[in-house]
Structures
1.
Amino acid sequence: MTDHRHDDPDHQDHDHEHPDETRVVERETYVERERPVVAGYVPPAQPVGGQVNVNADATPGYVDPGRSPLYWARRVLSLVFGVLTVLLAIRVILLLLVANQTNAIVDFVYGVTEPFVVPFRGIFQFDTVAPGGGSLFDIAAVVAFIGWLLIYLLLMAILSLADRDRPV
């Protein structure tokens, strides 16, 4: 008589081990647990009689009112002096390169910048240096450039003083 227990899949022989030393292990079940929720920041307790910030939970003690009128005055002043600086630099370059004074653009640059250069003429005994070939280095325009830059910085400092006590 033959034993067919090994051929029957429903039959389980718990006492019998397989000849190659392997054994059947049941599947394990894992249970995941919820992680504890970490509470938000809790400030340390204040000691009795210690300093207490009364606005700790409130909004800041000031409201930023936005840009002041002096902000816009500084922006306009920067624009005007920026344009003047560029025109003075163009004037010096045009004089160095012996630009044609009958040209409309060159005449415009000379005409616009001359009133800003005139106050600085005569500071030195010579206002121009002519190395030859018609080229001209306008020392008065360079001094005007430096002078107007200093005036610009002074005006910006004065306008900034008025806003120094504003909370930011």
2.
Amino acid sequence: MKQVTKNRIGMAPGARVRTRQAERTEATRRKLLAAADRIFARDGFEAARLEDIAAGAGYTRGAFYAHFGGKEEIFFALLEQGVRQRIDSVTAAVRKQKSPQQKLAALRKYYAEIAKDRRLVLNSLEFKLFALRHPEAHARLRVRHRRLRATWAELIAELLKALGHTLPISNAAASAACSSLAQGLLLEQLVDPKSLSEKDVRHILGLFFDSIFRVKCNKSARAEKYL
């Protein structure tokens, strides 16, 4: 039987070619997502053009369609990427803490700072408006959105189990409420920062977190205890 010739690191030539192709494909996909992030934040979902996204990444419209089926697909891929990165970050911050109370404090601190992510919040709003304006896509997008929210709910469930606590509402409802309040406050802060400062937003989010997770703070500490 003829043996396959291998290179010096032990990889068959065909496998090496496939690896390089996969790396190029992933690099192209990253560039397209980065360009889409900029274009969607600048123009909004409805006004954004595929040509601008492709050109912003240095590719043609044809190259775009080689990686994404359309504007809706890349938009949701971008949203999923942002949520996944956020989840990975907060999960790492929570799990490196030792006690359940420290884990809760880490989650609270992260949540209070969440509204600083202006681009992700605006893209989330664009996604919701698109779903509402396009009934034919609403059900499909709702399923994908619930899948993202479920990941947050799983993290909440893990923390509650460690604390030995239960919530007065479902974990899914808690996840939805926390996200919705953060997005709403950030929008208000962006529209009128003199009426609602970033510090106000962090403070309100902290108070809301405490009410959901039933965190008790004394008068001197109040909501700044974990910030």
3.
Amino acid sequence: MRELSDLGKSSGSQDGGENEGGEVNRVQLEGFTGADAELKYLPSGHPVANLSVATSERYKDAKGNDQEKTEWHRIVVFGKAAERAGKIRKGQLVTLEGKLQTRSWDGKDGKKQYMTEVVAQRVHVIQLGEQQAVEPRREPAKSVEGSQEVAEDDIPF
């Protein structure tokens, strides 16, 4: 963890989510998978796994009633680790670390579509007290400004 005196300093590591300006793009999540992982291969032959992870927040509203809010996160894992992550099944508890990435493409209607997802550097599946690490190859992220909800049919893979 960086100390306050370290602000403005950087390791310069793209993989760690930091850049030379000292900004940090780092995400940590723990939640349950909403579906079996989907393993596909890019035209280059490189594997990519896609996961859906839910995180929930419980709180009391102004009237004292219990409330729960669930957020769904899109997770992408690249490289050999994607093949291992492709074995993750619905309902498994996972913890992960990665960075946010927004990508864009032209939808079927010709409009620019955007999606923000977590590109995972570390994924841990927690089963019966055991922990298995999945370490993907780290690749630089392409950044695009803006984000909006997109239909599953418009996602290019």
4.
Amino acid sequence: MNAMHTLIVSDVHLESADCRAELLLGLLQSWSFKALIIAGDLYANGGIIGDKQFELVRYLRKLRGKLIYVGGNHDFSRKRVVDRLIGVRPVKRYSWSMGQKRFCVVHGHQFDRFCFVFSEPLIDRAISILFQLTQWMDPQKLHVSGWIERFRVKLSGHFARRARKFAKKYGVNSIICGHTHKPDHIAFLSEKDGRIEYLNCGSWTDRVCSFVAIDESGQAKLCCVSAESRHLSVVPMQTLRLA
């Protein structure tokens, strides 16, 4: 069994047909950890929680003594649902110190200039259905879905830089987010500000899902798991030097 101090997951999107609840449940049951942080968007807007998804909800409820829930753009309109189902109240952000580092977890929608669009349930649902259709019609990502994917990659770069500015403002060494559904691990280096680490947990709705694991010494790594093969891998950290 793998052992870590803290595991962080984001964008599980229960109620969505794309939710990999069974995969996440199996992963959590195979790891030993002292804290589990959900970095927002446990739920989607609309839909029904299926039997396999409800198994994950039951497991999370049992873990509520060591569960921290950071709310996402979908979650704050569902506070009562969250409280009742898993017994944990969402917070806007969660910070702690470990291994001479200051960590902070936020969902990250505050870094997204277009987030107001996805806060409207009907619009959010329509965009989600459109993206699913483009993936089904264009599996090789050559046209529409490929353009969307390239746009998401470009957007995540701007997102990471806004997250870094937030970390600098609040004296954080490691900022951990979700929201973009794109897993990232970047170390920003500058002579003025030193080293600020940015990690994005990715999501649990894609063919490859991801999470952040932090050991007892405060070392963080970004892990990916294939929904098909269940193969686990670690994403290498990028280093960006700033002027």
